[in-house]
Amino acid sequence: MKSVNLLEFDLDGLAAFCEQLGEKRFRATQLFRWIHQKGASDFAQMSDLAKSLREKLAGTAFVKPLTIASEQASTDGTIKWLFDVGGGDAVETVFIPEDDRGTLCVSSQAGCAVGCRFCSTGHQGFSRNLTAGEIVAQLWFAEHHLRKRLDLADGERAITNIVMMGMGEPLQNYSALVPALRVMLDDHGYGLSRRRVTVSTSGVVPMIDRLRDDCPVALAVSLHAPNDLLRDDLVPLNRKYPIAELLASCNRYLDAAPRDFITFEYCMLDGVNDTPEHARQLVHLVRDHVSCKFNLIPFNPFPESGLKRSPRERVTAFARVLQDAGVVTTIRKTRGDDIDAACGQLAGEVQDRTRVKERISTRAPIRIHREGPQGVSETYNKQESKA
Ligand code: SAH
Ligand code: SF4
Predict the structure, then answer these.
(1) Separation of CA 294 and ligand 2 centre (Å)
(2) In angstroms, rounded to a whole number, what is the distance separating the alpha carbons of residues 165 and 108?
(3) What is the residue-averaged pLDDT of the chain?
(4) What is the pLDDT of residues 345-366, one digit of tens each?
(5) 112 vs 232: CA distance, rounded Å
(6) Do the Cβ atoms of 173 and 109 come closer than 8 Å?
(7) How crowded is residue 341: how many other Cβ atoms within 10 Å of its Cβ?
(8) Residue 251 neighbours by CB distance under 10 Å
């Protein structure tokens, strides 16, 4: 039997593995608790497991952590780790402490194939999917490392929330994502509630439907534009799954979702998508159609993007249009930007094995609109009138 990394398994997977070793399910549960609740990686430590099982495990399995390439701590308490995942690839994980919670921002891929204009991961291209074990290993390391580092009392948790908002498009790595989510949710694992685990997606419509059926957790959708013409340019996946289809899938998702709203993320780009008219278009799009909240993200600039952060007043004016129309809207606090750990700044180290990077660098620059308070280009108006 080939030796396997036990971090790859959710509890059902581990039970199936233990069955092959001739062991009952409750043994798998014990083992799972040792690994995820106690952070053990050495079978010899697992004192209540039968010696015969520990011996069998030693020959067939291991618990493999990720290799840390670097760690950076921000003045605001945010910590970013760079993990070497082999083959010249490295991914980033960010811990964001707040008074009432500890959030871990987890990566799902080395790079990303979607190629959004405003995202530094997107600009790096795509190398490969992470395995379920590599996704789980980010949490396994962070939780047990932080318990010691923060000197937490027995039973106290360092990580109370997870957001799949690191590098990669989680719904383009579905088969690894789902077992990893199950480990996060399992009472014998990290025991996180479905409301505190968020998958963020640029809008892979068929996989939103599958997630609803397989493992509904909180859903955040990266919208970033109120019409298809602009979204086609900012989030290229929109050409495949346009806004109307995306919103319909959000509504289907809400039937099973642990929260009764979808969070729409909207990255505020100076002169691109940030006028009051864009906000009004958004109101028109969602009000009475999708139960949602907006989270406006101040753009975190990086040199190759050629884009700028919207001025603060424009962000608040934009928020006001949505709020006045009854759409709940918050503005995201930027955390960890002194260590490039803020949204969209995670770049890790990626061997681009596709041509995403090349395609992105040869795209025409986006048109920036600065024409007065309406701020809507003719092109967008044409698109509107077609609708
Ligand atoms: N691929 C997923 C999750 C990772 S990105 C997705 O796109 O949703 C996590 C969030 O950061 C997304 O909302 C994304 O749009 C946003 N983001 C990406 N680049 C950014 C940047 N430079 N500044 C601010 N937010 C950014
Ligand atoms: Fe990929 Fe999300 Fe970045 Fe777009 S914003 S390139 S989907 S990681």
Answers:
(1) 18
(2) 8
(3) 91
(4) 666 778 877 777 777 777 777 7
(5) 17
(6) yes
(7) 27
(8) 13
> In whole angstroms, what separates CA 370 from the centre of its chain?
32
pLDDT confidence tier of residue 369, bands split at 50, 70 and 90:
low
Is 106 a pocket residue for ligand 1 (Cβ < 6 Å)? no
Ligand 2 centre distance from Cα of residue 92 (Å)? 14
- Is residue 169 within 8 A of residue 116, CB to CB? The reply is no
pLDDT for the residue 303: 86
In angstroms, rounded to a whole number, what is the distance separating the alpha carbons of residues 384 and 321?
19
More confident residue, 182 or 332: 182
300 lines ligand 1 (CB under 6 A): yes
What is the Cα–Cα distance from 222 to 237, expressed in whole angstroms? 11
For residue 354, count CB atoms less than 10 angstroms from its CB and return exposed for 0-12, middle for 13-18, buried for 19 or more: middle
How many CB atoms lie under 10 A from the CB of residue 25? 14
- Asked if residue 375 has pLDDT above 70, the reply is no
- How far apart are the C-alpha atoms of 156 and 275, rounded to whole Å? 45
| Closest Cα to atom 2 of ligand 2 | 169
| Kind and range of the H or E run holding 143 | helix 132-149
Asked if 147 and 188 count as a contact pair (C-beta separation under 8 A), the reply is: no
Mutate to test the pocket of ligand 1, among 211, 272, 343 (most ligand atoms within 8 A of CB): 343
d(CA 287, CA 284): 6
Beta strands in 272-319 (DSSP E): 292-298
Percent pLDDT > 70 in the chain is 93
**Centre of ligand 1 from the C-alpha of residue 253, in Å:** 21
Residue 383 pLDDT > 70: no
| CA separation for the pair 110, 349 (Å, rounded) | 8
When pLDDT is cut at 50, 70 and 90, the band that residue 372 belongs to is very low
Q: What is the structure's pLDDT at 380?
A: 37
Single out the catalytic residue among 8, 18, 23, 92: 92
192 CB within 6 A, ligand 1: no
Can you tell me whether residue 369 is helix, strand or coil? Answer: coil
